[in-house]
Design a protein that fits this description.
The structure is a homodimer. Helix content of chain A is 42%, strand content 16%. Chain A is of the alpha/beta class. Chain A folds into two domains: 129 residues, Aspartate Aminotransferase, domain 1, CATH 3.90.1150.10; 243 residues, Type I PLP-dependent aspartate aminotransferase-like (Major domain) (Aspartate Aminotransferase, domain 2, 3-Layer(aba) Sandwich). The two termini of chain A are 35 Å apart. The interface between A and B is large, with 58 and 58 residues.
């Protein structure tokens, strides 16, 4: 087989050859001088991507491990938390908080709708006794292609002392997120998204206010204990043997990210979003999210009446080796998702749109072949 | 720099070029057909190395994450557990069990001494009410170079229903461990040891008896919840995006392991142990472990009087790019440790012994240059 696949998932994403080569280095002593230099360099690099001077810790786990770390490090069983949920990953915060003994209150939106910051303000204003210890939400809700307005939610806290915990796993380095300027207490990222390396690392930023809660938290934790991570970081180590090959990759991918610059990266992802939206409009496909809250990292398209999500996804894989995602949970069967983040370029995406267009046509969907591709190409030509 | 380093750590260990190349493959859909085939293949391969037909789950985490999974999946807060500890990793079980609310009883040995199975029998016989839910111990205690007699400890349980949980992270695929024949309930391994891939994966085997406790356990868990792992495995997936590049590597390293065969691998590691012990004897170096309980994966040598562990380890790195480990915790400053597991061969180890001999000589230790190397070479020539 050719191994020539176009991976248009909202993670894992394709890995650049530079990063592949960097990962192919031999293992080193994780408690030696080379590992110390590596850990400091990548941690400082990740801080730049988070736009923060807060502490940042890189843990060996999937993004969900980072979400668990954010929960178990600040919760005392019985603590009240507010989860603002508009998709599958919002539900995951509910499950994790419950697993660690929190008293969970949920503001729930229809999947595909963005969060309304006024609702957060309303709930926190009602909480005169300041019982709510933390508010949890997604930056980019991977399951729906909605980008939430994290800055507005942060401002909606007003004088309420609740921490703001943001799952930015699929959004960071694709859409703007300013940890310091927006006053975000804990932000979680994952390696297999716009960081362009394979899955297995998750990074968390921790504000000073969050640290006060980390010190007092009594939920069960060991592997993800940020107090241990901090103690070992001070000597240039991690508490447990970290995924060194992924750290080698992260060092290289951070160079690529910082060479391109965050502003350019955000513009590029905006263009991808516009390409998919233009193609969808030309093909009479309906999008799940409202345009003003559409994600620059992943686009969710409603399955046209009479077609099946499985047929579309399977035929794309079989006929063209193009990989896109189906819907999750409640949206299973109802949407398909095209990931366009990290190491994907305009021509990759155009190839994916071409394959999708032909596949829809073959499955009997009534469109003019070329219409979607033409519209997307126009966006690519204009550069945005 | 040449990047030509001889890594003689008890993990991370060197990665074979075949495995490096396998890891350099592009990412795939972790919920697609290729990932399903991969997950089933490596899980079946790992079962062969564990010598088990029990369920095996591969999780994305360091080995300590696997230890936490073994604890949090079987404990209800307040449950009594017995930890048989003879080193730093025994202490880690104590910390994890306490973090998850267990009532911990410890049988503690001087570091460097092996576990006495009779002590376990004595403690379990006293427990007429069967309050002890599980017994925890290390197979190979990485911090001391002691190989515990896991089979004898298992037999020492007699009719007591306590589960036996074995940390075999640094011992598995270096020393024999028969999960089914020895009736071991939960066994934990790590990727960066004799599995010869980088850190970031941990695998656990779970017996039927252990499953009954997993279903009833009430300790906080989410990321490491084995019920989720089982549910997703049934459809050929992991609950969360796994470290795919390490899984690509594991597929290749399992081929290497099964081509060589477990019996041959164990013999090879026995030879490495004998090489180090022969060299140590010839150089009048004192070993920490008794010979009959010495590990085939890592050898701990007492620092000769008047010398410093740091000087030895640093000079080996600076002068020869040979990496060995210092002591941990209570043994800090008192021992040096030579790892000889996984993708290391007799000539690598002989080179390391040569560098150590010269370094000791330069640091003023009174030896005849060549004596240690000659003794080790004799073992290599005899093949054991």
């Amino acid at each position: 087989m050719w191994e020539k696949q176009i991976l248009l998932l909202p993670g894992p994403t394709q890995v650049p050859p530079r990063v592949m080569r960097a990962m192919a280095a031999q293992q080193i002593n994780h408690r030696g001088p080379e590992a110390k230099e590596l850990l400091f360099e990548i941690t400082e690099g990740v801080k730049k991507v988070f736009q923060t001077t807060n502490d940042v810790f890189i843990l060996t786990a999937s993004g969900t491990g980072g979400m668990e770390a954010a929960v178990s490090n600040i919760i005392c069983p019985g603590d009240k938390v507010l989860i603002v949920s508009n998709g599958s990953f919002g539900e995951r915060f509910v499950q994790i908080c419950r697993a660690f003994g929190a008293d969970v209150e949920v503001i729930e939106y229809e999947w595909g709708k963005p969060i309304n910051p006024d609702d957060v303000a309303f709930h926190l204003e009602k909480d005169k006794g300041h019982l709510i210890k933390a508010v949890f939400l997604q930056h980019n809700e991977t399951s729906t292609g909605v980008l939430n307005d994290v800055k507005a939610v942060s401002e909606a806290r007003g004088n309420h002392p609740a921490l703001l915990v943001v799952d930015a796993i699929s959004g960071l380095a694709a859409a703007d997120l300013q940890v310091d300027n927006w006053d975000l207490d804990i932000v979680i990222s994952g390696s297999q998204k716009a960081f362009m390396i394979p899955p297995g690392l998750t990074a968390l930023s921790v504000s000073e206010r969050a640290w006060e809660m980390v010190e007092k938290a009594t939920a069960s934790r060991f592997y993800f204990d940020l107090r241990l991570a901090k103690k070992f970081y001070e000597k240039g180590q991690t508490p447990f043997t970290p995924a060194l090959s992924l750290m080698f990759g992260l060092k290289e991918s951070l160079k690529i990210i910082l060479e391109e610059g965050l502003e350019n990266i955000f513009k590029r992802h905006e263009m991808y979003k516009n390409m998919v939206w233009a193609a969808a409009e030309a093909l009479n496909l309906e999008m799940l999210a409202p345009r003003w809250a559409a994600s620059p990292a992943v686009s969710a398209i409603k399955v046209p009446p009479g077609l099946s999500d499985k047929d579309i996804v399977n035929r794309l894989l079989e006929d063209y080796n193009v990989v896109i995602a189906k819907g999750q949970g409640k949206l299973s069967g109802k949407i398909i998702r095209i990931g366009h983040l990290g190491y994907v370029d305009g021509l990759d995406l155009l190839a994916g749109i071409t394959a999708l267009e032909i596949t829809l046509y073959r499955l009997g969907y009534d469109i003019e072949i070329g219409a979607g591709v033409h519209a997307a190409e126009e966006v690519l030509r204009r550069g945005g």
